[in-house]
Specification:
The protein is built from 4 helices and 13 strands. By secondary structure, the chain is α+β, with helices and mostly antiparallel strands. The termini are far apart.
Length: about 200
């Protein structure tokens, strides 16, 4: 099922609607509409956490990489009246010098990654994509575990420019994380499972 948008007459959804949402749902508010969808399924979760593990060490901590970023999984962003929860988000330290001690983030990030699932694809590619452009997010990645693809966009004069589409086992070295290289198939659990089985059998 696609993400559900709920309106109560002329009521515009607020943060209270997010707080009142069922705990097993992800709740977001865009243009006054409450959107709820299930927590990520297993393949989605693997792709998201796997990408975080690839870029987190070199960019969060400077391990074999340049450092200088905050890379966060599923942060709650309050951007104007809109509330969104991207799968992965990154801020350059220049953008957000201090890590906030707060319930949510209010500074627009430099990079956002959305990992598609059936319940979120439409919202990710339409309303949220437009919202990120409005807020000046410089880089947007779309990961699709079903088609094993990665789309990488850069914001140019308020419009999204597609830089690359990668698939399967392609090597990833793209902005803003082009200081490192990693195989895209690290995000596909069936590939990792197959590799592990081969290791055991040998």
């Amino acid at each position: 099922m696609t993400a559900q948008a709920r309106r109560r007459g002329t009521h515009r959804a607020t943060y209270q609607d997010v707080l009142d949402a069922p705990p097993h749902k992800v709740a977001e508010v865009i243009a006054g509409t409450l959107h709820t969808h299930p927590r990520p399924a297993t393949r989605h979760a693997w792709a998201s956490s796997g990408l975080g593990m690839k870029i987190g060490p070199p960019f969060n901590y400077g391990d074999d990489g340049p450092g200088g970023w905050w890379i966060i999984g599923e942060p709650e962003l309050h951007l104007g009246e809109d509330i969104v929860v991207p799968d992965l988000t990154g801020w350059r330290r220049e953008t957000m010098p201090e890590y906030p001690d707060a319930a949510y983030f209010t500074i627009a990030p430099d990079w956002v990654c959305e990992v598609f699932s059936p319940s979120t694809r439409r919202l990710d590619t339409n309303e949220k994509r437009a919202l990120y452009a409005r807020e000046g997010v410089g880089h947007l990645w779309f990961v699709d575990p079903d088609t094993r693809t990665l789309e990488v966009f850069a914001l140019r004069e308020g419009q999204w420019l597609l830089l690359a589409t990668l698939a399967d086992d392609a090597l990833v070295s793209l902005p803003p994380f082009d200081a490192i290289t990693f195989p895209l198939d690290a995000l596909w659990p069936e590939v990792i499972a197959g590799a592990g089985k081969a290791d055991v059998e040998t």
